[in-house]
Q: What sequence folds into this?
């Protein structure tokens, strides 16, 4: 069940979260767990460490948002824009990221195990040391992405574009590489 958040309430939550990040006792960590943020414009917002579990962020604009360490497990972000976003060490386990634009985002150390990234744009994304075990990246575009030391065990990469991808030290055990597009194609 999602909880609809008004624009004013969202602004107040973001302001309080900013204070919390600055260790101001008047601030409070943003708790948007289960919130309905369909089409929300959170571009450039600072939500480091925020709780967005099971939030509905479909078609939201989170471009250049700072979401490092944020909890987005089970969140729905299908069709959202997260280009240039900072998602370092974010928890995105089992998140719905179908068709998401993550181009140029930093997901180093993020946990994306079991996430659905089918059809997503992950061009030039930093996924260094990220956990993607069991994730679905079928038909995703990963051209120029850095997957150095990433855990890709059991990942589905069928029909994904892997041109100019850095896979050095990545674990590809049991990965489905059916018809991937590589530099040799």
A:
């Amino acid at each position: 069940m999602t909880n609809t958040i008004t624009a004013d309430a969202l602004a107040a939550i973001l302001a309080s979260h900013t204070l919390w990040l600055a260790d101001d006792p008047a601030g409070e960590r943003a708790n948007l767990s289960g919130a309905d943020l369909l089409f929300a414009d959170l571009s450039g917002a600072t939500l480091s460490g925020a709780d967005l579990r099971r939030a509905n962020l479909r078609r939201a604009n989170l471009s250049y948002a700072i979401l490092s360490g944020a909890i987005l497990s089970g969140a729905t972000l299908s069709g959202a824009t997260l280009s240039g976003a900072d998602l370092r060490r974010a928890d995105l386990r089992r998140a719905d990221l179908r068709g998401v634009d993550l181009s140029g985002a930093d997901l180093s150390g993020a946990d994306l195990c079991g996430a659905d990234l089918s059809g997503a744009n992950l061009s030039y994304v930093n996924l260094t040391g990220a956990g993607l075990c069991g994730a679905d990246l079928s038909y995703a575009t990963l051209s120029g992405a850095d997957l150095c030391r990433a855990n890709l065990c059991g990942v589905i990469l069928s029909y994904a574009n892997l041109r100019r991808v850095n896979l050095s030290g990545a674990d590809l055990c049991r990965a489905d590489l059916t018809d991937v597009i590589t530099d040799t194609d």
